[in-house]
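Marked as duplicate of an earlier ticket. Keeping the data here for the record.
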Amino acid sequence: MKKILFSFSILFAIQTQAQTPQVISRIDSVSYLAGQNIAKSVLKDFPEANVSLLLQGLSDAMMKRESLLQDPSNQCVMSYFQEKMQAIESAEQAVNQEALAAEKEAGRVNREKGEAFLIENAKKKDMQVTASGLQYEVLKKGKGPKPTASSTVKVHYTGTNIDGQIFDSSVERKEPISFPLNAVIPGWTEGVQLMNVGAKYRFYIPQEMAYGPGSPTELIPPYSVLIFEVELLDIEK
């Protein structure tokens, strides 16, 4: 009995060895690598393929054997991939629509939150409100000249949202910034013109005078009311 089992083991080993291709020549190497490349291409576009039938189809075509299926115009293959692509596009559109709806809702909530904040903020003592809706507090008066809309000014500032989160600060960077007043958001253009050099104001800028539905940074959600504490250091030109 042991002799019979031993014989079967030898036979199985010989069969396994015979079924395993050996890479000996350059043709062998290229053949194997070509198979790898075919597999990579299939995995990219058709990872759900039935591997056994895929290999059978490849083998039948290479050996010029009779095909199990007839599809001379490739209609079966083309219609499958067209339907697959349409399904993918439909899923992506659904995801995009959900994302847009969520973004629109978040913008609506943020806009209403900002409007409610400004209504209450305007009631504070010493709060001043311009005709445009810009709100400001005078933290320190200045004695120098006032800039115009075409002036280039040098300022120190800290910008926060209505929850107190800082999104930008030249004070933290310890480096003042210079810019033309007509090249910034309307709230800045109007507000800084109210200041004398040496003054320090706190501005509460409505979203329509800031970035509205857009934003230069993720720290500023759409339709955000912005708060800037600004010190006018100089008028450069």
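See parent ticket for discussion. The chain has six helices and seven strands.
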